[in-house]
Amino acid sequence: MLTLTPSAQTLVRDLTAQPEVPDGAGLRIAPAPTPGQLQVSITPAPEPGDEVVDNDGARVFVDPQTAELLADSTLDAQQGSDGPSFLLTQGG
């Protein structure tokens, strides 16, 4: 299962705590339109079949096709001047 660093937990909670984001929302990781890439977005709820990772209120929804690929990965994050950035590390 995907694990989150404390930095990723904080950033996901901050992003989903915005007033315009509904309760229960999370960060969704899914395949990007470009083959071999992933995309992240804030979504109000998981899609059918998504794996749900909830670490101290930081909710991440992982697309079923991607969940196996990320099963032994760690998600890290940082807030930069260009906005949030996420980094996946294999072998979590």
Using brief descriptors, characterize the structure shown:
single chain, 92 residues, alpha/beta, 3-stranded mixed beta sheet, 16% helix, 43% strand
What does this structure look like?
The protein is of the alpha/beta class and 92 residues long. It has helices spanning 6-16, 64-67; strands spanning 3-4, 26-31, 38-43, 51-55, 58-62, 73-80, 83-90. The longest helix is centred in the first third of the chain and has 11 residues, at 6-16. It is globular.
Low-pLDDT regions: none
Cα-to-Cα separation, first versus last residue: 9 Å
Number of helical stretches of at least 4 residues = 2
Helix content: 10-25%
Radius of gyration: 12 Å
Structural class: alpha/beta
Instruction: Give the overall shape, derived from the CA principal axes.
Output: globular
Instruction: Please write the string of helix (H) and strand (E) elements.
Output: EHEEEEHEE
Q: Provide the β-strand percentage band.
A: 35-45%
Q: In total, how many beta strands?
A: 7
The residue-averaged pLDDT reads 92
Placed side by side, the strands forming the largest sheet appear as: 3-2-5-4
For the report, how would you describe the main beta sheet?
Answer: 4 strands, mixed
